[in-house]
Design brief:
Layout: E1 3-10, H1 14-18, H2 23-31, H3 38-48, E2 53-56, H4 61-64, H5 67-78, E3 82-87, H6 90-95, H7 111-127, E4 135-138, H8 145-154, E5 158-159, E6 183-184, E7 189-190, E8 195-199, E9 202-205, H9 213-225, E10 230-236, H10 250-265, H11 294-311
Helix pairs in contact: 7-8
């Protein structure tokens, strides 16, 4: 049996703020764009009886106030899904008066400053109505040893910032890029984002908009066949809409629907889980990513090209 972590990075995004959007406008295009944001995703997950973890970034509260974070947290918890901690530090820069924003990556900060940032974010998330988090993912996967030290000091149990296809910059944890199984880091368990292999030395992470439905299913079957304890997928609150947030990307919506149906049909061997469900006492045997398959990759590239042409053209 391989447990599946469906993770959704959930945040107010930078571009609307930079255009002068109110928090209401930012929430609309970041949290529920084109009717296929988090509420639609929660409904689909519920209908299929699936679990998911939403990594919520509370740092925009430093600029917009706590209300938009409450508006994100409440429906996730009401749907019986999990809220964990996500951090983009740029919002602190804005709150400190740097109008254009800087420091998008947590790794630009030393260990003590990272501790302060993550502690602030944790307190804001709880203020917004979430339970104290036990898991963390850095915005942009930008984490290093200072991040791990901060998480340990704050008593979190899991980190999910290691992304081998983004290693060593900005995902700067001292781990091998092709590590996909959970690793005990001495009081903190690293839960890497699952990768597939595209060729010698080339990895691609299992993100909904980055790999095809066929590749996701192949990666999950591979994990089950090889007895990997976990497979971790990534999406974003706004990912199923066009980049301007004005229309649903039907290719990605169908991909998400296909994934939910697949997992619902394999719940005995590929059950979805929350971080709160995980019991990992020690690092398991090392697992390898799904090997490359040229035709599968070619089909994905053709699908992505069609999708971009159809849903990212100018209105």
């Amino acid at each position: 049996m391989t447990q599946v972590l469906l993770t959704v990075d959930t945040e107010l995004t930078w571009a609307p703020y930079a255009r002068g959007a109110s928090w209401e406008e930012n929430l609309a295009v970041s949290f529920d764009p084109a009717g296929v944001g988090v509420p639609w995703q929660l409904d689909l997950l519920g209908r299929h009886g699936l679990k998911a973890c939403f990594f919520v970034d509370p740092m925009p509260a430093l600029v917009y106030g706590i209300e938009p974070i409450r508006r994100m947290v409440a429906p996730i918890l009401a749907a019986g899904q999990e809220v964990q901690l996500h951090v983009h530090p740029v919002w602190q820069s804005v709150a400190e008066g740097v109008a254009e924003g800087r420091d998008f990556e947590l790794t630009r900060f030393g260990a003590e400053d990272q501790l302060d940032l993550i502690e602030t974010a944790r307190d804001l998330l709880v203020e917004a109505g979430a339970p104290p988090p036990i898991a963390f993912r850095a915005g942009g996967y930008a984490a290093d040893v200072g991040t791990l030290a901060a998480l340990l000091e704050l008593g979190l149990a899991f980190d999910s910032s290691h992304n081998g296809s983004h290693h060593p910059d900005p995902s700067a944890l001292p781990l091998e890029p092709d590590l996909i199984g959970p690793a005990d880091l001495g009081g903190l368990v690293e839960v890497p984002v699952t990768q597939i292999c595209e060729g010698p030395g080339r990895l691609r992470h299992l993100q909904l908009c980055a790999v095809s439905g066929e590749e996701i299913e192949a990666a999950l079957r591979h994990a089950q066949r090889e007895r990997h304890p976990l497979a971790t997928l990534v999406s974003h609150s706004f990912e199923l809409a066009s980049r301007d947030g004005r229309r649903a990307n039907r290719t990605l919506c169908r991909r998400f629907e296909r994934l939910c149906a697949f997992l619902a049909g394999h719940s005995d061997s590929l059950p979805t889980a929350h971080f709160a469900d995980l019991e990992i006492a020690a690092a398991p045997a090392r697992g390898a990513p799904l090997p490359p398959q040229p035709w599968r990759r070619a089909r994905r590239m053709a699908e992505q090209a069609w999708s971009n042409a159809l849903y990212e053209r100018s209105l």
